[in-house]
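Final report, closing paragraph on structural work. Over the funding period we assembled a curated collection of sequence-structure pairs, and we close with a single example.
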Amino acid sequence: MKNAQLYWLRNDLRCHDNLALWNASQSGPVVAVCLISPATWQAHDDSPIKVDFWMRNLRALKHSLSQRNIPLRIATIAEWSEAPSALLTLARQLGVETIWFNDEYGIHEQQRDDAVDRAFSDAGLGCQRFTDQILFKPGSVLTQAGTMFKVYSQFRKVAYQRLHTWLPECVPAPPKQTVQNLESDSVPAAVEGFAVPGTDQQSLWPAGEQAAADRLAHFSENILLDYERSRDRPDQDGTSRLSPYLVSGVLSPRQCLHAAIAANRGEFDAGNAGATTWINELLWREFYKHILVCYPHVSRHRAFRENMEKLPWRNDPKALEAWKQGQTGIPIIDAAMRQLLATGWMHNRLRMLTAMFLSKNLLIDWREGERWFMRQLIDGDLAANNGGWQWSSSTGTDSAPYFRIFNPVTQSRKFDPDGLFIRQWVPELEHLSNKQIHQPPIDDLFSATSYPAAIVDLGDSRRRALDAFKGL
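Its predicted structure, as stored:
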């Protein structure tokens, strides 16, 4: 192929507003390539539902690419260290001039991408990289002293200043190119080592750019303006549910930002409270990506605040398993954990509640929870998942103070007042009144249902956690 360009796709499974794909298409005929690495995905705790979501979206993307005469090649490699040789081999077969890709973050991803960059440079070939998963390149939003922020509100202030002077635009999908004499590869129906979810679970998360665009439109038109009030209610459809599409790159952060600005009449830091609150959530996502890059020890499963490595975590396998399976005897915690098991997703308010319950009420190492979430979540993302767990456990940057421990019963009464969410996921308790369902009476536990008694006393466990943190 003359003047061929190789687009290496990863977590950017879309044609629209894809910086690497668009720019590659402006330089010559494009061939897309995807590397499948089951062993690496397992080592990184990617969940079966997430891998299945990737494959389903890859099939949808293959169809979109074929409409533009862009062939898709797929190669399976044992681990990421094989990426440079696999991509170079394909590039030489196709007569490729340049490889194009969007940067990924996390220490292993950066090492892989840098190795590919060096390999192509050493071979006399070009390598073009883009900041696409986030709005600003990591390390570009800094304090006056030239260091990365450790406090989100300060990071957000500078991000707002940058957005006022430069609002990133969305690029179009690549144009239809001349037909290439190259067939696309088949997308595997399953990946070795990862079970295929049932159709009920898959149907909750339809694949493809159109599905993502439909959900974004629904959110922008029907939910966004009331988001500030509704986002904490797990009994309502008050969140975007766009995280799986953002994590897999079926949707870009720029598309989300522009949709919110449009709904907010051109504003992003003023105007409707729901819109500005959601934009702040997009910037939290951005903040954690920057933290991941600027403070590499976070990628190594270490506490951001190094003194927190000395916390006397408890080893309690029985309690950990009860938490994982939604059998703690605390209804809102169990409902949330069962939602995760059944759908591959959990409401954000409940992610904080379940994380605090594990790391503080049970005083079990936050890394146990971080790992379990990654192995279950369809939207598992190292930066966001690690950031959320370290925030809840008070070990991270700009985290909740150690003495801030959410009471799950109080939170349940406030955000699920009629117990609708609990009744959906803990049907053993559906016969209880709105008052009782948040904290079932002990006698009812054993006389009318098989629901377990609470595995921990909330008051006693709170005091135990405070003593542990104060001892540092």
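Residues 4-132 form a domain with the Rossmann fold fold (CATH 3.40.50.620). Strands lie at 4-9, 30-36, 72-76, 96-102, 126-130. We thank the funder for supporting this effort.
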